[in-house]
Amino acid sequence: MNTDLDDPRFTAVGLFAEAYTGLTARFAAQFEEHRLSAVEFEVLMRLARSPGSRLRMTDLAGQTSLSTSGVTRVVDRMDRDGLVCREACPSDRRSSYAVITPAGRTRLDEVLPGHLALVQQWFIGQLAPEQLTGMLESLRTIRDAVNPCATAGSDAETQAA
């Protein structure tokens, strides 16, 4: 087993983690201005970008950084805040959907302009178009390998999210 600390695999994972941590820190203050946590923003985005603006709870868990029980807690809190609601699944009584509400869509619409400006400034704007294309292809390949459930409940148009 190679224990060379200069192994480029350590560098690749380390750079990815550092970039992700740096970006999430830049986004956190802006989310806070809009009374959202990063995970609440993630839930609203996933729901808004899904067919019918809804996902089964299990699919939402697969598409986010949350466990099934974590999704339940977040959706319960967001339901109390009026940002999402639950709907029963007509074909499976054991399942339910999380659905973005008009208030949730309004909150998301308030956040998006500033969020997109930060994404442009600190992420997309740092890359040449061909670098961005290559990175997106690479990230999809990795995502599909490590999290095959990440596109569950999405139609073909949103699977590339």
Automatic annotation (TrEMBL):
Q: Could you identify this protein by its name?
A: MarR family transcriptional regulator
Q: A Gene Ontology MF term for this entry?
A: DNA-binding transcription factor activity
Matching Pfam families: MarR (PF01047)
Matching Gene3D superfamilies, A to Z?
A: Winged helix-like DNA-binding domain superfamily/Winged helix DNA-binding domain (1.10.10.10)
Organism per entry: Paractinoplanes ferrugineus
Q: Where are the transmembrane segments?
A: none
Q: Which domain of life is it from?
A: Bacteria
> Could you give a single Gene Ontology term from the biological process aspect?
response to stress
SMART domains linked to this entry: HTH_MARR
Cite the PANTHER family for this sequence: MARR FAMILY REGULATORY PROTEIN, TRANSCRIPTIONAL REGULATOR, MARR FAMILY
